[in-house]
Write a structure and sequence with these properties.
The complex is a heterodimer. In chain A, 86% of the residues lie in helices and 0% in strands. Chain A is an all-alpha fold. Chain A has one domain. In chain A, helix 5 packs antiparallel against helix 6. The radius of gyration of chain A is 18 Å and the shape is globular. The termini of chain A are far apart. Chain B is an all-alpha fold. Chain B has one domain. Helix content of chain B is 81%, strand content 0%. Chain B contains 7 helices and no strands. Chain B starts with a helix and ends with a helix. The chains are: A mainly alpha, B mainly alpha. At the A-B interface, helix 1, helix 2, helix 4, helix 5 and helix 6 of A face helix 2, helix 3, helix 5, helix 6 and helix 7 of B.
Chain lengths: 125, 148
């Protein structure tokens, strides 16, 4: 039941998205924050135009793991909640859909920041 | 005033000192690293689908992303992710690991400035714009979904 093709297509599609990003990095010297925001917005646009769902069906984790998938889940959450709950859903939907990822990123970062210290700073002493 | 001339000379000097990213090797490295992270994600996805068959596909996706985010924060903490990032370039930024690293890396880096003004504030230096654009964009999408 583990389908090797899923892994191959995830590798190829995920790799290709990073390949495009690396071209941008080389050509424009774009910063990390800008490149994350850019691909997040690309994901939202794909979701709004209903391109993301078939793309995800095709690319599996190659579509969900890149930040494009994060943008798409924000957009999808807001659009679904807007249809179900009305006006309030417009504002609650996006963060509800992506809450798991954001909460885990903040929680784990906080805990590990308490546990570990910066390696570069330690070397300087 | 030869200020302009000096600026131009300085820019030429900077240009000559900045390490040149050789295009093809870095593109291939980004491809390999990004692809590998996505394949690992697929591995988590299959694992959670196998062990928790009750969960819906989106819940399994969330679990998979949370696992990857947690592992990335741990790798950032022990200093491994910096090495991976230096090797793979954009391949380490575009997957959700890049978002997670952008939160945990400054949090650990600025620990010395205290818990509130160090960890809690600096945590969002890079991830802040991502979350702000994400929330604003999702509300725009929500309006589109509501009226269309």
């Amino acid at each position: 039941m583990i389908n090797i093709w899923d892994y191959v297509i995830s590798f190829l599609v995920g790799g290709f998205i990073c390949f495009l990003a690396q071209i941008l990095v080389i050509r424009t010297k774009i910063t990390t924050a800008r490149i994350l925001v850019l691909f997040l917005i690309i994901g939202m646009i794909l979701e709004v135009f209903n391109i993301y769902a078939p793309f995800k069906e095709f690319a599996k984790a190659g579509a969900t793991v890149p930040i494009i998938g994060f943008g798409a889940s924000l957009a999808r959450g807001a659009m679904l909640a807007a249809k179900e709950d009305g006006i309030i859903g417009i504002f609650t939907g996006g963060l509800t859909a992506s809450a798991g990822g954001i909460a885990m990123a903040i929680f784990a970062s906080f805990i590990f920041a308490l546990i570990f210290s910066s390696k570069t700073k330690r070397g300087g002493h | 005033m030869d200020k302009d001339k000096r600026n131009i000379n300085y820019n030429i000097y900077v240009e000559s000192k900045v390490p040149k990213t050789r295009a093809w090797p870095s593109l291939i490295k980004a491809f390999i690293l990004g692809g590998t992270i996505c394949a690992i994600g697929q591995g988590f996805f299959d694992m959670y689908t196998y062990f928790f068959p009750n969960l819906s596909e989106s819940e399994v996706s969330t679990c998979m992303l949370m696992s990857i985010i947690f592992i990335t924060c741990l790798l950032t903490g022990i200093g491994v992710y910096d090495v991976i990032g230096a090797w793979g370039g954009a391949g380490s930024v575009i997957p959700i690991t890049g978002f997670s690293n952008s939160i945990s890396s400054p949090a650990i880096e600025f620990k010395k400035e205290g818990i509130i003004y160090g960890i809690c504030v600096k945590m969002f230096t890079i991830a802040g714009p991502v979350i702000v654009c994400g929330v604003v964009g999702s509300i725009v999408c929500g309006f589109i979904g509501y009226f269309v």
